[in-house]
Description:
This protein is an alpha+beta fold and 99 residues long. The protein is 36% helix and 31% strand. It contains three helices and four strands. The protein has helices at residues 14-28, 62-69, 72-84; strands at residues 3-11, 34-39, 53-59, 85-93. It comes from Bradyrhizobium agreste.
Amino acid sequence: MTVYAIAQLKMTDRAAYDRYQARFFDVFRKYNGRLLAADEQPRVLEGAWPHDKLVMMSFPDEAAFLAFSTSPDYEEISRDRKAGAQATVLLVKGFTPAV
């Protein structure tokens, strides 16, 4: 089942986050993920949103996401993400309608 990783980021050190971002695709493309959105100015339609960026990715299944997120390559670059932004990251299961 497709899963979606949604990250809401509040920047704390832009230079560190930019280092992460510069290396992200080299790691990401190895794990069958798809980047669906990366927006630093999403339009808030309802409620408060105290973040600076939203990122949405899809993976074929949870195992593919976990292979990416726990890989040594990602763990190495994620140090800069963690230094550069506070994050809330959600893993959401895709929806399969009942037939």
